[in-house]
């Protein structure tokens, strides 16, 4: 199991200002741009293996993620590849569904292995004219952490187990099965004792007092 | 998010919620007692206990409880999402809801100060005794309610919905001229007739319906007898999911009470009765200003209604207890509204003295008692009636008076009504706009009450069958549009708002299921 985002910290990176692409003359600003590119520069010299990318949407309809990967073993120059193509974030680009939701793109959802990534590029598309602007907020990239190796029990410990002597049983149940079932029942009682209820008690007053004069407006 | 992880999270959430509940301890007790049985063996303890629970019906009860939890469960949270995002994902709607709530609270505060009535205080002992004696006939009381006025009426809320704007929405050009016809200016995704036909396929012209095919002139062997037999089986099986599916084609009158209780998993066990008694004690002990609002609302609405005035006493018993029920506070996790807060004895800022007012966090408005009134026809025991109403409120009715982007929220229903009318009755919509009438202003009061008090009771219950069956309030918007379609000819001839209102004043003769069926499945596309 890889590390969860709760344990790992996101990678520190700089996000360049989003660039809205235009066709032809950049001065023609009467039409809204429907494509925006956000470059994410990961720390120089430290390629990242990406576990997941999280962000909050702000009216982006589709997102494409491209990664610049540099394989450390080979001397080949870094190559761009598409990790996620046109992932829909809004069911309908013209309506509110999904417009301000939080999203996670996990490495298993990516088309390529997001390892040794130097730079990421998010291409945002919003074809609808209904919105004034669109972007992604709060972009975080979490690195992939290797799981802890299984702790190996030393060989000499296993020599210490004694072989059982089987006593002469006649008509009595097998002690192994009895002890294992008793253990099961003991475990059941333990679980019952540790039950924590989420049910509320139902009291709305404080020590019997419920004298209120004004409601709080904050 | 990975589907397997989502499923595990959902299961963990449900277990957390059911752990420690009364059902949990009942099942444990049953499991312990079944150990005495001869066919339960030590070697296969787990499987034998499981099969015992299955045959004795306890597994089904657990299934129903899990099914109920799925209805009100929050979607699994992405780690960064704050809790308010689960209440309502759109920031501008959260803000609008907060400022609307502030208005309501200010109004309540000023009412309290003007009238000199505290928001809550303990009843003196003599008054408590008197109320206990009069509990079953509170309707005979004639307190002076002339100074009290409802905190808000549905039309005030409509103005707030009309004024909602998305700051990121480009409404500069006539990009969608349609949006300038209607009142709602928020671009929510609402379903049109082709999608509705798919979703509501059980209502199509070839399926039998209660409300159409149980008519006296149609031979019962064609549909009704067999349908009632199936209904009896569903009630005997005690399966919530089956009851919900069954209810899509309507419930036979004799089985409706049991079916609704199954769908909502509203039992009437001793602990439910005890809980109701505890609420009753809360009513007797403390007097709330909200109680006067409830009295006034019942007197103004239900008591004046030919169908519901007989239930006046029941309504007091249910609504007063409802305001004392802190279990209702749970639903604010997925409701965009927030319960009002206050401090006892004026100790503002002292969190130890912070309380919720009223205890259930819901401030009643004009017409609120109409959510309960139709249920009085189904249940005559106060604690069962109470449980069914509370479950219906926390699943559906709360969406009718809070600002949210949910598909069953009142905002989506209003937009859907307008869009359906604009798409399929454009001439009517245009004509009404020409004479200065906005159709939503006529239909809003129906939708906010889910048509309670406007339809005749048997028709209303058939409509609410479908709300439960499809777990959605969309059918309310569809019916509103269908009513306009039905009365379109008359409406095309009116020339003023007053005459439009007159055409739509009386809905008590309408049969809802034929209207909905024709509108959804027989409208020319």
From TrEMBL, chain A:
It comes from the Eukaryota. One of its GO terms (cellular component) is nucleoplasm. This is Nicolin 1. The gene is NICN1.
From TrEMBL, chain B:
Residues 250-471 form the Rab-GAP TBC domain. InterPro entries: Rab-GAP-TBC_dom (IPR000195), Rab-GAP_TBC_sf (IPR035969), TBC1D19 (IPR042507). PROSITE patterns: TBC_RABGAP. This is Rab-GAP TBC domain-containing protein. It comes from Astatotilapia calliptera (Eastern happy). The gene is TBC1D19.
């Amino acid at each position: 199991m890889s590390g969860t985002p709760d344990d790992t910290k996101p990678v520190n990176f700089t996000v360049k200002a989003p660039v809205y692409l235009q066709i032809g003359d950049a001065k023609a600003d009467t039409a809204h741009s429907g494509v925006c590119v956000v470059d994410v520069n990961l720390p120089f010299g430290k390629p990242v293996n990406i576990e997941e990318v999280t962000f909050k949407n702000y009216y982006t309809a589709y997102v494409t993620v491209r990664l610049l990967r540099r394989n450390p073993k080979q001397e080949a120059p870094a190559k761009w590849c598409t990790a996620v193509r046109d992932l829909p974030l809004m069911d309908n680009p013209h309506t509110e569904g999904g417009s301000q939701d939080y999203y996670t793109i996990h490495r298993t959802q990516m088309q390529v292995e997001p390892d040794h990534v130097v730079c990421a590029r998010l291409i945002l598309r919003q074809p609808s004219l209904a919105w004034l602007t669109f972007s992604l907020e709060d972009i975080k990239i979490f690195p992939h952490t290797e799981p802890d190796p299984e702790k190996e029990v030393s060989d000499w410990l296993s020599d210490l187990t004694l072989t059982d002597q089987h006593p002469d049983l006649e008509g009595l149940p097998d002690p192994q099965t009895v002890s294992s079932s008793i253990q099961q029942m003991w475990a059941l009682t333990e679980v019952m004792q540790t039950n924590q209820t989420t049910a509320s008690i139902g009291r709305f007053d404080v020590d019997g007092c419920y004298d209120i004069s004004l409601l709080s407006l904050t | 998010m990975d589907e397997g992880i989502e499923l595990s999270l959902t299961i963990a959430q449900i277990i957390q919620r059911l752990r420690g509940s009364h059902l949990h301890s009942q099942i444990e007790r049953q499991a312990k007692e079944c150990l005495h049985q001869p066919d339960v063996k030590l070697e296969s303890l787990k499987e034998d206990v499981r099969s015992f629970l299955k045959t004795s019906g306890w597994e089904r009860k657990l299934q129903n409880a899990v099914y109920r939890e799925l209805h009100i469960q929050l979607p699994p949270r992405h780690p960064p999402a704050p809790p308010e995002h689960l209440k309502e994902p759109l920031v501008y709607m959260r803000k609008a809801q907060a400022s609307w709530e502030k208005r309501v609270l200010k109004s309540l505060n000023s009412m309290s100060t003007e009238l000199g009535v505290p928001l809550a205080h303990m009843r003196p002992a003599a008054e408590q005794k008197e109320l206990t004696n009069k509990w079953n006939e509170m309707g005979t009381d004639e307190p002076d309610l002339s100074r009290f006025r409802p905190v808000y009426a549905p039309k005030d809320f409509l103005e707030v919905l009309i004024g909602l704007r998305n700051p990121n929405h480009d409404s500069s050009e006539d990009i969608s001229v349609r949006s300038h016809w209607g009142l709602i200016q928020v671009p929510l995704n609402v379903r049109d007739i082709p999608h509705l036909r798919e979703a509501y396929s059980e209502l199509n012209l070839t399926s039998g319906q209660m409300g159409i095919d149980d008519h006296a002139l149609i031979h019962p062997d064609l549909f009704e007898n067999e349908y009632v037999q199936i209904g009896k089986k569903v009630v005997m099986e005690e399966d919530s999911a089956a009851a919900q599916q069954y209810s899509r084609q309507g419930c036979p009158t004799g089985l409706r009470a049991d079916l609704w209780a199954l769908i909502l998993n509203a039992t009437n066990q001793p602990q439910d009765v005890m809980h109701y008694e505890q609420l009753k004690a809360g009513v007797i002990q403390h007097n709330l200003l909200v109680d006067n609002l409830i009295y006034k609302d019942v007197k103004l609405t239900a008591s004046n209604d030919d169908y519901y005035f007989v239930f006046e006493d029941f309504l007091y018993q249910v609504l007063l207890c409802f305001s004392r029920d802190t279990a209702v506070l749970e639903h604010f996790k997925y409701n965009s509204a927030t319960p009002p807060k206050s401090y006892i004895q004026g100790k503002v800022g002292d969190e130890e003295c912070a309380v919720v007012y009223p205890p259930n966090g819901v401030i009643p408005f004009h017409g609120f008692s109409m959510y309960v009134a139709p249920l009085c026809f189904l249940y005559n025991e106060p604690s069962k009636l109470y449980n069914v109403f509370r479950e219906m409120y926390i699943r559906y009715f709360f969406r009718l008076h809070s600002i949210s982007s949910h598909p069953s929220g009142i905002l989506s229903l209003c937009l859907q009504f307008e869009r359906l009318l604009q798409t399929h009755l454009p001439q009517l919509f245009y004509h009404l706009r020409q004479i200065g009438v906005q159709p939503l202003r006529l239909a809003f009061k129906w939708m906010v009450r889910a048509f309670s008090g406007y339809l005749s009771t048997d028709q209303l219950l058939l409509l609410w069958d479908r709300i439960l069956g499809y777990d959605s309030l969309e059918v309310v918007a569809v019916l509103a549009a269908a009513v306009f379609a039905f009365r379109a000819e008359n409406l095309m001839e009116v020339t003023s708002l007053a005459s439009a209102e007159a055409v739509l004043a009386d809905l008590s003769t309408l049969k809802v299921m034929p209207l909905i069926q024709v509108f959804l499945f027989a409208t020319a596309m």
